[in-house]
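Repro:
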Amino acid sequence: MGTTAAATARPFHDLEYRWDFGDPAGGATWANGSGANVNSKNAATGPLSAHVFETPGNYSVCLSVFDGVSTAQTGITIAVSDPNVVFAGSATLCVDSGGLPTAGMDGCPIGAAALNSSDFDAVINTTAGYGANYKRILFRRARTYVSSFQGALAADGPGLVGAYGTGTKPLITGASAKMMFGTAANTGNVNADFGDWRVVDLNFDGVSKVANAFEMIGPAKQLTFLRVEVRNTLIGLVHSKFFLDQINAGVPFTVPVWSEITMADSVIEDSGNYAFLGEANRFALLGSFLRGTDPIGGHLVRVSYTNSMVLSNNHLAGGSNGNSLTIRGFHPFPAGDNTIPPNAWTENVIVSDNRIDGGNSAWFFTIRRVNTGDDVRFRNILVERNWLVATPPTQNMLVTDAGELTIRNNLFQMTGGVSHDSVVLGRSSGTPASVSNNISVLNNSLYAGTATSGAYVLINISEGSAPTNLTVKNNLSYAPNVTGGNAVVLFSPGSGADISNNTSGASIQTGNPNFATTPPAAPLTWRPAAGSDAIDAGASVPVWSDFFMAPRTGTYDLGAVNP
């Protein structure tokens, strides 16, 4: 559902959307992200959002939209079914590696079948029949299971693979892939309707980083990974379009790309390549901790194509050879691409409330094309309230070719980086022309404490033609030890540029932001105090709240945090 507004022609960017999911059980706070232990799971912002309901019931979800003057509201009721009703009786299987479970005891549901086994893949593939024989497969907590081959789910849901009992999450170990989803082209019996499965409260250890944890090998939709832990695998979660291209080889674009995929409150670390790799529509990565500590050469998170993605309240802790986060604009792939239509766009993307640490590359956060000259297609990208922390050898914080992009209310902690270009803008030489059109960089705070003779630059227009309709306002920069020159925008900003009310020139080095602490560390310390040069120095822009969601009223201030 879209939004129309008399106040703006760009509602995705210029309106403030606040969600209340009506979920008391979801009222806890996120453990990760820029607002760790503060941001409520029962609330979200942005023109699209995602939430996982964990308790049965009827929930009244309310959306409020603010245009700077007026507020409009709408709502919907969501019914969440009771798993003990959905999976009643013989649909449930309890598995214990230490003995034979008893239904109705130790958390094993009444009426469930019982199995004594430590062989994870045999349970999923043979006993459960790839999800056809049992729809709820529960492993006892505080037990260890071994996978010598991947467990595969191929039968329609609703279904759940999870835990029962008390204690630590069940540990599934072994140097093999852990779970595959869907049916591949070479099986001869592809289930195009596969989906509606949940993997919850399990701990996977790949031991030697030689295989993937979760892999989509055929059509899949409505998959949720909740409170899972993944360590020592090659890739944590992979959606390689290669498998769908094989299925679509006969009739291109018949089977769509994966959709309605959610990972929440999870951990993927010590990955040998990527934590996440692939394409997906209606994709959500929420409240998770991701880190690659023994990289082969991939990015930590690489999204090659998406339509409608929410990436919020995560800690992307770097450690990869590539970037911590890469979002690629869709461009027509060469012959053999049978899944994503050539007129598709990477669009409707929210990157908010994350802590993103620098990866082991020159830049660590990119929204861009694959190759120079690609016909990349971006629109409606919103990057807000993230805490971006540079670490050597990071040079550039955020590199982008995207159009229809807003970057606002972010904290750029550039100390530790080897260069100080905060935002690098480039433009593809291909089409469509809107690729680098309508870019707004508003109310961000930037600090670089490193002593260097290199220049400090807020925005570096580095490649090809300058973007059109570039707006840069209310950005607060402080780099007291950078002596090589200071610039708000380096090189021509292009036509239609509106650049004003930013810390500029010598003030970048000598201005007094009066942060609560200098250098500012945790987000609360970025708040300017009385006497700050940032107070009342801004211009009115469609940024209605600050980093902490406090309303912006009266004369605008510089930076992401209201004094």
